[in-house]
Amino acid sequence: MKAYALIGYPLEHTYSPFLHKLIFTAWALPHTYIAWEVLPSELAVGVEMFRRNFAGFNVTSPHKKEIIPLLDELDLSAEIFSAVNTVKNEDGRLIGYNTDGVGFMAGLERLDYDATDKHILILGAGGAAYTVALELARLGCSFTIANREVETAYQLKLYLDKRFPNVDSEVCNIERIPRQKYEMIVNATPVGMPPLVGHSPIHPSYLEGAELVYDLNYNPARSLLLQQAEQAGCLVENGLPMLVYQGIRSQEIWQGRKASPEMGEEILAVMAKEVQK
Ligand code: NAP
Hints:
Blueprint: E1 3-8, H1 16-26, E2 32-37, H2 43-53, E3 56-59, E4 73-74, H3 76-81, E5 86-90, E6 93-97, H4 100-111, E7 119-123, H5 127-137, E8 142-147, H6 150-163, E9 169-173, E10 184-187, E11 212-215, H7 224-231, E12 235-237, H8 240-255, H9 261-276
Parallel strand pairs: 1-2, 1-3, 4-6, 7-8, 7-10, 8-9, 10-11, 11-12
Antiparallel strand pairs: 3-5, 5-6
Helix pairs in contact: 1-8, 4-5, 4-8, 8-9
Bound molecules: NADP nicotinamide-adenine-dinucleotide phosphate.
NADP nicotinamide-adenine-dinucleotide phosphate binds near residues 127, 149, 201 and 243.
């Protein structure tokens, strides 16, 4: 039996242990997965403890960047995002990966949506917005990045400009988004999830003409933004497939095996029921 964990702070409402136990059951593995709160000041000590006792661990806020200097090696996936959400322990060597991008793209693939060359409105400019922007920049998308703190959005624009010099992006305040056609809108803010249920980050008039609205939050399954997007005739996706598929990808890295698409969808269905409880 091997031990795995999620580290972050705080970790009050995480579904990760439930998700990873479903994967262990599907693969008939005897392993365990626990959520372990690690304060920022305890990260270095915590990582050494995990090096001795755990076969791997996931990393969430606020440690995704701070953990990098404590690891022995970074996979290309983590280098690209300058953030780690998965660590594999190979005989005491800690190797950092990032599976968030795989999770985000799995949400698009399930819908059979081709985002190539689309103009995207990204709401938010935190860690999740970086994942979204970097994945979609590879597909030649252009971006309007809207955030409360415009300076934070500008940092994301600079990051994109450096890595993708041919990609167009502009930044704005989330209260003053330019009126233009956005083919895809991604909510990478917590607006719509508790305690902001019943709130939307944008006025519904921005949804007109959008093909797809993707809310990275999944609780509730249909945020106000997604309800309004459905009414406007858009395709919609919530963040649950992203959560599930980033977790499955972590397990593929740890266990050295591939999950079938059927297994992914079965686990997603069970997770959807669990989140709605
Ligand atoms: P983060 O790094 O803390 O960034 C949060 C972003 O939301 C910032 O841009 C912040 O703007 C903005 N924001 C916060 N409160 C806001 C409000 N009341 N009104 C407008 N904007 C607000 O968080 P993150 O990791 O990027 O995550 C963002 C969201 O995506 C979270 O809700 C998270 O749960 C979700 N997420 C889901 C998955 C998944 O697997 N489904 C994965 C990652 C994240 P300022 O810069 O102005 O503060």
